[in-house]
Hints:
The protein is mainly α. The chain has helices at about 10-15, 20-50, 65-100, 105-120, 125-135, 145-170, 170-180, 185-215, 225-240, 240-270.
Amino acid sequence: MSAPARPTSIRDALYEAPGPRTRRLMVAGTVVTGILVIIGIGLVIRQFYVTGQLAPRYWTFLAQPTTWRYLLQGFRGTVSVALTAGVLSLLLGLVLMLGRTSGIRPLSALCRVVTDFFRGVPSLLLIYFFFLAVPQYGIRLSSFWMITLPVTLAASGVLAEVLRAGVNAVPRGQVEAALSLGMRRGRIMFKIVLPQAVRFVIPSLISQLVVVVKDTTVAYVVSYPDLMQNARVLITNYDALVSMYFTVAIVYILLNYAINKLSGFVAERMGVKIIR
């Protein structure tokens, strides 16, 4: 009896397994790239040493509790904006997706235009709009909302397309079977299609929070006290640009790494396979 065929994935269908020669080239390329990266890091450190950026006075302030308390206040601001924008963008993205898949042509066309607009316009441009243009119409927003709303709008367009991809991944036969039983389309969407669609794209939904977190780094435009803005204040006070940006970069990397691990954990608990 022949062994059962190994189940294939999308990656198996799109990409052929590398042969011995290709694998040798991949190993050689990895080694060369690693050496070049190490050399580059060494040159950067050497340049920092030559210019005096490694002097103790640029780093000792990081050992002070007041420095980390101030950074922690900014970190809380970043998390507040990211979580609020993440929830609002998910809700708005859901509305845009439902409108685009509603089958009502005017509504579908409108939601498509709105989705494409928010996907195409940089979040920084939206922030400047809320900061400079909106107040001219007598609408006064706090700095929190002047950063949260633009980030929400920019992310909602992407999330709408992610959710639509999940809806399209649900087998059409399930919808047809439900219609044959007399169920209404709205009930089919919320009872059958949407739960499965969310399950398909839940890792992408959580990973989009990484993009939201990165978009909050321009909060200095509206003087919102997030992590980056508080870091800029410390840079001004201690004249420590390299050490401060290095520290903040580590914090953002750890935060985004935690979000990605959360995405993988949720996907595993929900039985969603992630191709790595």
